[in-house]
Amino acid sequence: MTIKTKNIKDISDGSKISINIALIGNPNTGKSTLFNALTGLKQKIGNWPGVTVEKKEGKRSFNNFELSITDLPGTYSLSASSLDEQIARDFIVHDTPEIVVQIVDASNLERNLYLTSMIKELGARVIIALNMMDLLEKDGSSIDVQKLSKELHIPIIPMIANKKIGVDDLENAIEAVYQEDQKPMGIRYSKEVEETLSKIQNMLATIPSIPTNFKLRWLAIQILQNSTEIPTLLKRWNVKDTVIGELTSFGKEDYEAEIIDSKYEYISKVTSKVWKKGETKLTRSDLIDKVVTHKWLGIPIFLLIMWGSFQFVFAISVPFMELIDMLFGWLAGLLVDNIQIEWLGSLLGDGIVGGVGSVLIFVPPIFTMFFILSILEDSGYLARAAFVMDKLMVKFGLHGHSFIPMLLGFGCNVPAIMSTRALKDKKDRMITILINPFMSCGARMPVFILFAGLFFGASAGTVIFALYVLGIAVAILTAVLLRKTFFKGKSAPFIMELPTYHSPKLKAATIAMWDKGKMYLKKAGTIILIGVVFVWFLAAMPFGGVEYGGPDTWLAAVGTFFEPIFKPLGFDWRIVVALIVGFIAKELVIGSLGTIVGGGESEEGIKSAILADGGFYALNSLSLMVFTLLYVPCAAVVGVMKKETGSWRWTIFSIVYSTVIAWLFAFAVFQIGSLMGFGL
Amino acid sequence: MLTKDVIKTMSDETLVPLGFVSEGKKVRIVSIIGGSRIRNRIIEMGLRKGIDVTIIKNSFGPVIIAIGQTRFALGRGISAKILTRLINGKVNK
Predict the structure, then answer these.
(1) If DSSP codes are grouped into helix, strand and coil, which group holds residue A103?
(2) Which of A89, A131, A209, B7 is deepest in the core (most CB within 10 A)?
(3) Nearest residue of B to residue A280, measured between CA atoms
(4) Contact assignment for A424 to B69 by CB distance below 8 Å
(5) What CATH number has the domain spanning A191-276?
(6) Contacts of residue A84 in chain B, CB cutoff 8 Å?
(7) A264 contacts B61? CB cut-off 8 A
């Protein structure tokens, strides 16, 4: 082991040498698996768009080094045509990690090396982790790893990431490569391109404000192929408009194709020396696909899997829900009865324990929902669901890819909206984001379960299913409407890699369930707790003499003010209050109804209070469910929508539009129902 | 879909859009038509001139193709824009 003098000092201090590493790779190459193997930090292995959309970081120590590893989104290219690519590229450009470890699928060498060529162009030091070496023999292919490494001037470590084979070698390579300069790849473009590139490079070299570590050749290539974001980048360095104009005048769109071709040409030349390609054989995955994507069987299988998933969620969670309900009911009762100061007992019992309890009770179904979604993703089925739905989605101006965020929306709309980052076309992405809140998330389920269970008896399941379908229908109608008005044009072509089926891993699914579910728990402990206390406060004010949650409280005043708007939907002031509070988090609709109607300490309590109340009946609870399904998404979704659309205009549009739609549908339900004699 | 009559009239040089090649056939990509933006993205995913493609499924909805061990689903629109030539000599009926 050779340690440079500079580093020996570090070690004598007892401190470790820290190295920043970026992990990058094509989708479905086992990047998440390698990340887990390296960091021990557990995270999902998945294939749907956006599995590593969040910036994930982990640490690994060996010898005297501490690695900070950043997991970048899976991409085919760094041309920044999707947000994922942009995130990956910007990280390498601006955060300048010391080493970029690229995981490469050994069975698809050329395409993977194309990404390598782009990383090298950014001036990064690269190590290739050549994964899935064990699969090479299957189709009779082979790679001369040493020769390839020599040709590319890049260390290549053969690996089988899911068996942790090759991790030690990777460590050694990191130690060797660290602080060494790496030769660039030998890609040469045509004479015309090269000449123009050096002209641009010479011009760039005269601009002092460009950071010295910036790779001018890469910048020149971007200018040459007319990358749209180059003017903004140059402006950030205070480059004069006239200079920008002069630089961009070199650009021509045709150059991009030529540059891509030259890269592939070079890669083909290299791989032809070292790679023996295998024969394509039908695999077990292909046979499963023949059934799962079958003309007639595809959609029934999809519906069966969805139905089975819902059944599973409810079957598993009901016993746990009853348990939690009993526990909180008992605790709240204990507090109210035993605390001498009446208002404090009420705050702790009715307000906090009751309110939080009425939210926590829905932890079991929400956790199982995330568990099931993760199983569907890991197994590879989610990509097939997108496939099966493509034909239908095309009719609505979208394509199969947009269906995955829609399905994820059943869990929670926040990660679902974030997963749209993998969509390449901006209009497709905007539509997919804007329709997502209509996919009924887990937090709306409690309202359905409670009211459908109370007033629809044996057909409760059907009512809930119909609500989900209504949500999908409104989403699709909205998509059609948006495509015909604001986002005219055709959707981007549908191309999706179909990952090989894996048997889902229980451990990975459990971890995913916990990772996502804990967001919900955290919410219950923070924003929902505050909301509940706030509602309790309004329900108890003004101090002295008023009946808690009664018609003389401040809460009633707020509700009564808005009541006229909601009267035609069959809502009285109490429901209005619950709905307003529901904007903070949809879980609060039930929580605050519990507070107002009373019996808030347990679900059973709320149920009997609602039944005894007389203000709730089948028709207005149906109208309430429809309204809850469709109206303004919760604050967290509004936040993520603003972030992902980058536009307040569209965020506000979504808020207004969804609320108007909710009002119209609930109005129709209540009025038509009343005419048919289903009213009170 | 390729009917038998159409196949009979085809020589080895005939270009066939990917979406019209029947299941189990192997073809080589000759060119990709359409806007440069879309074309470049497809090429970056590894679907480019000179690459051999096996059709795994082509009956309903998107086409499933194989390049080595990788599988892609391609929408109808895009698979009409990828022009291919049948390889392995004659077309087996």
Answers:
(1) strand
(2) A131
(3) B68
(4) no
(5) 1.10.287.1770
(6) none
(7) no
Q: Which pair of structure tokens corresponds to residue A253? A: 């769109």
pLDDT in tens, A265-319: 999 999 999 988 877 788 888 899 989 988 889 889 988 888 788 778 777 877 8
Q: Could you please report the per-residue DSSP string of A636-672?
A: HHHHHHHHHH--HHHHHHHHHHHHHHHHHHHHHHHHH
* Strand, coil or helix: A291: helix
> Residue B68 is nearest to which of A108, A254, A498, comparing CB atoms?
A108
The string of DSSP letters for A407-438 reads: HHTTT-HHHHHHGGGG---HHHHHHHHHHGGG
| DSSP string across A28-44 | TSSHHHHHHHHH-----
Query: In this structure, which topology does domain A5-177 adopt according to CATH?
Result: Rossmann fold (3.40.50)
The pLDDT of residue A8 is above 70: no
Domain spanning B4-86: which superfamily? Ferrous iron transport protein A (FeoA) (2.30.30.90)
- Of the candidates A593, A606, A306, A611, the residue with the CA atom closest to the CA atom of residue A469: A306
pLDDT at A598: 66
What share of chain A has pLDDT > 70, as a percent? 91
Containing H/E element for A19? Answer: strand A17-25
**Residues whose CB falls within 8 Å of the CB of residue A413, separated by 6 or more in sequence, listed in order:** A436, A437, A439, A441, A633, A637, A640
Which residues on chain B are in Cβ contact (under 8 Å) with A496? 62, 72-73
Distances (CA, A) of A509 to A41, A382, A514, A580: 14, 14, 9, 35
Q: Is the pLDDT score of A180 beyond 60?
A: yes
| Half-sphere exposure of residue A84: CA atoms within 13 angstroms, side-chain side | 27
Inspect the interface and report whether the beta carbons of B46 and A496 lie closer than 8 Å.
no
Secondary structure of A135-146 as H, E, C letters: HHHHHCCEECHH
**Residue A661 C-alpha from the chain's centroid:** 26
Can you give the pLDDT at residue A4? 40
Q: Are strands A65-71 and A17-25 parallel, antiparallel or unpaired?
A: parallel
Is B69 within 8 Å of A280 when comparing Cβ atoms?
A: yes
Residue B39 contacts A where some CB pair is shorter than 8 Å = yes
Alpha-carbon distance of A301 to A85, in angstroms, equals 34
Of A76, A282, A294, the CB nearest to B45: A76
Which chain A residue's Cα is nearest to B41? Answer: A81
Q: What is the mean pLDDT of residues A242-269?
A: 87
| Mean model confidence pLDDT for chain A | 82
Instruction: Give contacts of A280 with chain B, Cβ < 8 Å.
Output: 26, 52, 54, 66-69
Residue B46 is nearest to which of A111, A278, A280, comparing CB atoms?
Answer: A111
The average pLDDT across B22-41 equals 87
| Spatial separation of the C-alpha atoms in residues B2 and A619, rounded to whole Å | 56
Please indicate whether residue A550 or residue A586 has the higher confidence score (pLDDT): A586
Residue numbers in A near B61 (CB within 8 A): 293, 295, 298, 387-388, 390-391
Q: Calculate the CA A593 to chain-centre distance.
A: 31
Beta strands in A238-363 (DSSP E): 275-276
Question: Measured between CB atoms, which of B39, B56, B75 is closest to A399?
Answer: B75
- What gap in Å lies between CA A421 and CA A50, rounded to an integer? 7
Question: Residue B56 and residue A497: Cα distance in Å, rounded?
Answer: 13
Q: Is the pLDDT of residue A488 over 80?
A: yes
Give the integer Cα–Cα distance in Å for A515 and A522.
11
Q: Where are the domains of chain A?
A: 5-177, 191-276, 302-675
Which of A234-238, A277-281, A489-493, B82-86 shows the lowest mean pLDDT across its residues? A489-493
Query: Which is nearest to A302 in space by CA: A378, A397, A387, A368?
Result: A387
